[in-house]
Amino acid sequence: MIRRLAILVLAACALAAALAGEASAHARLVDSVPARDAVAKTQPKTVQFRFDESVEGKFGAVKVFDVAARRVDDGDTKHPGGQGKVLQTGLKPNLPDGTYTATYRVVSADGHPVEGGLVFSIGKAGASTSKTIDELIGTAKAGPATKVPFGIARSIDYLATALAIGLLAFLLWCWRRGLAEVAGAGAEWRTASEALAARARRILFAVVLLGLVSTALGIVFQGAVAAGTTFWGALDGTILRDVISTRFGTVWALKAGVWAALGAALVVVAPRHAFALRPAALGADGQVLGAPGTARLVALIVPATALAFAPAFAGHATTQDEPLLLIPADVVHVLAMSLWFGGLAGLLLLVPRATAALEPVDRTRLLAAVLVRFSPLALACVLALSITGTLQSIVYLQSFGDFLDDAFGRAVLIKIGLILALIGMGATNRQRVLPQLRQLASGGGTPGAAGHLLRRTLRLEVGTVLVVLAVTGALVGYAPPSSTAGVTGPVNISERLGPLQLEATIEPARVGANTMHLYLFAAKGGRPFDGTQEITVTATQKKSGVGPIAVSMQKTGPGHYTADRFQLVPGGTWTFDVVDRVSEFDQYETSFTAEVGR
Questions:
Q1: DSSP 8-state symbol, 178
Q2: What distance, in Å, lies between the first and last C-alpha atoms of the chain?
Q3: What is the number of other CB atoms lying within 10 angstroms of the CB of residue 283?
Q4: How many C-beta atoms surround the C-beta of residue 510 within 10 A?
Q5: 29-137 matches 491-596 in fold
Q6: What's residue 17's pLDDT?
Q7: Which residues are within 8 A (CB) of 146 and not within 5 positions of it... i.e. 6 or more apart?
Q8: pLDDT above 70 covers what percent of the chain?
Q9: CA–CA separation, 264 vs 209, rounded Å?
Q10: Where do the domains of the chain lie?
Q11: How many CB atoms lie within 10 A of CB 413?
Q12: In the CATH hierarchy, which fold is given to the domain comprising 29-137?
């Protein structure tokens, strides 16, 4: 059984790896001072970037470079006036006239890195640095070698959380109560209960270790993604301190402490046979349950329950406009899934080993007694998952089309389908298996076919939940459509176009008339590129089936093209395809997306 479970876990990890994609950054640059391509008559004292949500200024934050790629900022990045959406750095005094490049690399509220830059001039415009913005930032975007294992680590973290919460609840609520109802005075009952207690303790220790390792790895992987470095590079003390000082890092560091506290409780507080039978005191006949004291229960339950809060505070819930609604919903969602999955795991991993020493008739009675207590708990979990899942879908997704057209929506749709399958399997157990077992228990029968059906459905349920956890781990890497709904722009884009650097702005990035500016620069040297023979731009709104629409671009300067009052309807994610023909046979192509607010 353990071997089968290990195979299922590996399969879930493989699915998490397949689903782990390019994380959509949430924060968007909406304004800067100086503005892009601005020419200031006198030197500004600071450079300031404003985003559409709060950002964290670590990992290189804001830097300014001269034409020789030398730093000319004072290195002091801060939030002026405590404004979380604004980052500012000061400039060194008495800078000469010329062109300067300002870059930013910030961490969005949900832990996703955002980077970019712009050029401005003092006195008069000139050549900018020969280095690209990516080279100036000094980092590379984290690739699959980092993001894939990060997604796996998140999925394993969810698995450990679900097992820690669910197994403890199963032992305290279902197993002990069911055992107390049917246990006899024979030694076989003591043997069965002690076998389960010892196995449960081993599994819980393994779960704690799994949680600690996945949490530690998650912090390092987040550092690699945010700082644009490798896993080994993220082990640098400065990067780790920067990660832990972010909201994501703080939550995960606290979670590591919670895992350690739970492990200590299992070592120090929980006696070896806390969930087993022991002889009654004073020589009384029969057996009674060895119950953990109140302090021991608190020491076990509090850290286990605290784990359910981490996904809400480190994930998407706190980045939305309804955090007071979404945070409790996320916590309840995690608790419900954990209680359900932990109960299934307990029935599959603990009960068979414990009941092996019992006679078939006693095995039937015990199994029926435990299932009678787990069944209503599972039903309550289904209701909680349905309510919270519906609420989250309403908030995170803007329309039914998002289920198919958005990566986040597709992951949610997969998760809904899997949970519906779980509900069907649970209904089979509740409507067919449980009544048969209760009838057999009352008549002194053996599990027989009902027991075999129960084992098959339990294995399917556990395997399906593992896939759900893998999908959940992938969901964290996607930005919900709601995170970009209502964006009022302007949109600033920086993309490579063959050997060129393309800078684009769309204003106001709202439904209706918009203005687009395209700037073409040589990636090396930074000079405007004026070798274009023809440039074409098309816009497509895939979700609504609109486009491709030709955007008429007019040349307004060297390497500068403008489209005035072109229409973008409806709102949502638009894809822009750019083709720059430089000769009869050569052209450069790229595409970018922009969110158009409703």
A1: H
A2: 53
A3: 6
A4: 18
A5: yes
A6: 41
A7: 221, 224, 225, 230, 231
A8: 67
A9: 11
A10: 29-137, 143-483, 491-596
A11: 17
A12: Immunoglobulin-like (2.60.40)
